[in-house]
Each structure stands twice: as C-alpha cells, then as structure tokens.
Amino acid sequence: MQKTVLMVGLTAAILAGGLSVAQADSHKGKMGKGMGMQHSFEELDADADGNITPEEMANHMQARFEGADSDGDGALSKDELVARMTERQAERMAAYADHMIERHDANSDGMLSPDEMQARNKGKMFEKMDADGDGAISEEEFSQMRAQHGKHHGMMKDKKASE
C-alpha cells in the first residue's frame, strides 16, 4: 500500500512538472515560451492565399491585444496580462489532460485511476530512479532523475540538477 501511494505521488509530481514540456510537444512547430509565436500559419494567413502579409500580422496582433484588453482602455495592465496568460495556460492544460485521459483511460470512463496511471510503468519508474537498488530513492538519485528528465525534454539547459 505504501509503495502504491509513493508511486502515485511520484507519478503526479513528475506529470505536473513535465506538463509544460508535454504541452509544448503537443504544439509542434509553435514556440511555447513567453509571448512568442504560438499560432499556426493558417491562423495568421487571414485570406488563405498562402502568404502572411504585414497587414495580416498587424491585424492578428491587434485582435490579440483587443482580446486581452478587457476594460477597453487601449492598454494592458498587469492584471489583464496575467488573466490572458492564465486563460491560455488553462486551455493548454485542458488539452493535455484530454490527451492523458485518451492515452491512459483503459476502462473508458473519462477518468484516470491510480492503476491506469501506473499501468504503463508497472514500477519501472521507481526501479529506474533507485539507481543503487536499495529500495529507496535518495535525494541524489532524485536529482539525477530530474536532470536526466530535463535533458530528455529540453529543460534545464544551463541549470544544475541540484537547483
């Protein structure tokens, strides 16, 4: 029972930590950092002529700005920026949650049980993290796993594993 609780906790922590990476992977071809380009070519090519003109880009940017300017004063406050970023993050998180359920929901009930979340790994994650095989994960082993996970997913480029 304790091992199951530990595995569920570790799985949840890793999934939560890797959410941004996974959502970036689900939006291939889009820049997922900051306020960079996050729209498809088709969204920007308003007249669908196969080219994005400066006018189309400007109109798109203006529409995004107006969508975020909730009080219509022509300027974005910190609260408006945070609200827009939170909205977009929530959309990406919902899409990733749908992806996870689609991928792991063995009984098609629209929810994930601990068993469904663990089904793919069947304890392999714990064994992989427990590098010395002593049945416990030390802080060093945990840090090494995070560093490897980050390298695999393009994270922690200039950070040490202990940070």
Please give a structural write-up.
This protein is mainly α and 163 residues long. The protein has seven helices and no strands. It has helices at residues 2-26, 41-44, 54-68, 78-104, 114-118, 124-129, 139-152.
In short:
The chain has 163 residues and is mostly helical.
Keywords, separated by commas or semicolons:
disordered C terminus; 0% strand; 7 helices; 59% helix; 163 residues; mainly alpha
- The tally of beta strands, per DSSP, is 0
Oligomer: single chain
Give the averaged pLDDT, no decimals: 76
Quickly give the structural class: mainly alpha
Secondary structure: helix percent: 55-70%
List the helices and strands and how they pair.
Blueprint: H1 2-26, H2 41-44, H3 54-68, H4 78-104, H5 114-118, H6 124-129, H7 139-152
